[in-house]
Amino acid sequence: MLALVTGASSGIGLQYATQLARDYHCDLLLVSNQEKELKEVAADLASQYGVKTIAHFADLSLIDAAEQLHDWCKAEGYVIDILINNAGVFFFNQYCNTSMKRIELMLQLHIMTVAKMTRLFAEDMLQRELTPEEAHTRICRRKRMRGYILNMSSMSAWMAMPGIQTYNASKAFIYNFSKSLWYELYPQNVGITVMAPGAVDTALFGLAPRLRKLAVNLTVSIPPEKLVKRALRKMFRGKKADTPGVINWLSTPLLKHTPDWMLFLAQKKLAKFMH
């Protein structure tokens, strides 16, 4: 199987690439706008796990990036069995202090590129006829699958949160888009899964190690490797959507009703992260 992973040179994308190679023995088409790091990752994974890796440098925030990548795959004869739409950006900022370029980049990358990538590669999957031998080698034994798509959303999709207004709106699109599309694709044997994690245990917020450990223990935060392991398991089981962490799952309905005073307090606390 050949898996296309976007944003594969670091972070969660690197975890997807690693676990697909190590645990599922998938060949990899790795896409990122970090050319040097991407080539190093591809060489390292090929050496460690004996899979074929292809490093493809691309800026997926460009308006025609999805079409260009799809056309390139066709020209090279690459048949994509698994699509991981992971590439994304994140920043805290007051909306009126954010440049139009940054707004366009986020919306293009999170919405248009994800929508187009899903459209183009899902169509290829739907047209695919499986031989009995191919069906037997599929990871999902209970149902003959033509392909799998995994899109990354966020718990912030349910938040009206100052400073991340563009981010959470774009993640809400990904979440609802993917869940709606599951009803169209799954009956035709193409799986689509959307993950909506809460905090991921990285150094992004500058928390002290003890606070990061506490957040993980409370399941409010999840280590990247654990998130990806869970996401791939859900994807291969044909699940529609998932939010890791019991507390996160239980608190999701409450996020829609966060009182204004709490949001203004959060805005004050988050001001130091905005730039």
Can you walk me through this structure?
The chain has 275 residues and is an alpha/beta fold. The protein has a single domain (2-273), classed as NAD(P)-binding Rossmann-like Domain (Rossmann fold), CATH 3.40.50.720. 50% of the residues lie in helices and 14% in strands. The protein is built from 10 helices and 9 strands. The protein has helices at 11-24, 35-49, 65-76, 100-126, 132-137, 165-185, 209-217, 224-236, 246-255, 260-270, and strands at residues 2-6, 27-32, 53-57, 82-85, 147-152, 190-195, 199-200, 221-222, 241-242. The chain has a 7-stranded parallel sheet, sandwiched between helices. It has a two-stranded parallel sheet with strand order 7-8. Helix 1 (11-24) runs parallel beside helix 2 (35-49), helix 1 (11-24) crosses helix 8 (224-236) and helix 4 packs parallel to helix 6.
What quaternary form is this? single chain
Output the structural class: alpha/beta
Number of helices: 10
Mean pLDDT figure = 86
Write down the CATH topology: Rossmann fold
The count of β-strands is: 9
Query: Radius of gyration, Cα only, in angstroms?
Result: 19 Å
Count of all domains: 1
Give short descriptive properties of this protein.
seven-stranded parallel β-sheet, two-stranded parallel sheet, Rossmann fold, 10 helices, about 280 residues, alpha/beta
Care to give the gist of this entry?
By secondary structure, this protein is an alpha/beta fold. 50% of the residues lie in helices and 14% in strands. The protein contains 10 helices and 9 strands.
Give the SSE map:
Layout: E1 2-6, H1 11-24, E2 27-32, H2 35-49, E3 53-57, H3 65-76, E4 82-85, H4 100-126, H5 132-137, E5 147-152, H6 165-185, E6 190-195, E7 199-200, H7 209-217, E8 221-222, H8 224-236, E9 241-242, H9 246-255, H10 260-270
Parallel strand pairs: 1-2, 1-4, 2-3, 4-5, 5-6, 6-9, 7-8
Helix pairs in contact: 1-2, 1-8, 3-4, 4-6
